[in-house]
Amino acid sequence: MFQVFKKLDWFFKHYWKRYTFAIIALIVSSAIGLIPPKLVGYAIDKIQFETLTMRLLVILVSGYIVLTIVHYAISFLWDYTLFGGAAILERWTRSKLMAHFLKMTPTFFGKYRTGDLMARSTNDLKAINQTAGFGVLTLVDSTTFMFMIVAMMGFTISWPLTLAALIPLPIMAVVMNKYGASIHARFTKAQEAFADMNNDVLESIRGVRVIRAFVQEEQDENRFQTMTNDVYEKNIAVAKIDALFEPTIKILVGMSYTIGIGYGALLVFESRITLGDLVTFNVYLGMLIWPMFAVGELINIMQRGNASLDRVNNTLDYHADVTDPGEAVKVDTLNAIQFNNVSFAYPGAAVNQLENIHLTVQKGQTIGVVGKTGAGKTTIFKLLLRQYPGISGSIKMAGAELDTIRLKQLRDWIGYVPQDQIMFSKSIRENIQFGKEDATDEEIYRVMDLAHFLNDIKQLPNDLDTEVGESGVTLSGGQKQRVALARAFIKNPEVLILDDSMSAVDGKTEAKIIEHLREERQNKTTFIAAHRMSAVTHADHIIVLEDGKISEEGTHKELMKLNGWYKEQYQQQQLNDKEVSS
User: Fold this and answer.
1) Could you say which residues of the chain have pLDDT below 50?
2) Which domain holds residue 477?
3) CATH code of the domain covering residue 558
């Protein structure tokens, strides 16, 4: 049960002063809280024997008030310190998770779904927070405070009465242990069900247009209802065990009260204890309710925290399959890029996605990459970005092996516009400034002109401050592509990769963007993957991929002379364009 504290020892060691102070303050506060019942019992005995004077009464009341004030002040200090530490742990762990996510490669995100990662970053972290805060409180109160109360009852009143009243405790320990094991198993299942539901909601929101287009609203709602019922049932299973804690403890505490009052009254009649002692004993017995209840809460919280911490640690223990080299090569100037006999298969795939790729790109060249869907165009770019390990052959930049260059330096060189544009739920200005944080409005308007977006921005309600909505939902496909292009242009990278990034714009717009590219990208390298041959006719070198191999390569003119796939596609597209224009 206490394994969760061992797993968090790195945190407690770092903040040992904070937790030492909090625990000491908690113990002192508890000790002070044991004094008032003795004062009450003392006053009752004085009243019974008619020896209570006004002076003594004033002293007792004044002492009671002072103790209350001191108890309040110390309680505030331990509460603030203890639960403040728990908040720090949650913040630290959330930051570690976020930093971990940003280091991960596509392999990781293929294993963990977004909804599951969000569940681990929210619900599971809350359970860990509870462990480091309320868990420590219940641990101290269910052990130290309980022993302090028992010691006061035994040493200052009567050990026989104390031991008799504590007979239900061993029964409670056995029952609580069984409840705890069941809580751990059921809570883990509930968290997994919540993660599945989370993921389903995200997919439904992202795909709302498709759901509506195919009139699947009712089916999606029914599927969601099924998942929420599953989450509900699994949480009810946890709640059923959770609900057993309090009545079980109340029954056992009731047994203790019955024993305490019955046996205590007998001892009073036998003059072995005073009436004041019996009153004090019953007050202590009432105070003992919380420590006994804390035992159950402790087990509950520890099991929940342990289950959540295991889920979070499993995520953090996943090692990125692409990392920085131990000794990085320093490259000051990026010139040639070379693919030497490169072959590659995705993790778990039986066949290679790329086979024996040979390509040399000089600085300032524009390279066109064309081919059928699934031919391997995007894969080449993913390898250039070092998103996957397991490359056969070598990729060199400026003569250095790709895996000897630091990831930050490599990705600083590259501006990447993928097939599926990612828009952040911010303004258009902020989306473009993602490429250059301190970009001025003048610079932003300039790159929007390059991306042929100026006319569009004038039609939007708030110009650059127009919010694009979740994943750019307020923009059309072509608008999102052009904002993504502007974001890459403003970075002005050494290597610009356009992965079918103009598929949603019309031919005239594409031609203007290409013209701007040719003017702006002189002496800088550009890769353009496209299905429309018109996007690459200006390229210095074009490669045609077929089943992961280069089947044709050369300039536009050279490829037209080969009478191969490229020429066939180009002529077919030209014919289609003429038919559309006519």
Assistant:
1) 582
2) 337-581
3) 3.40.50.300
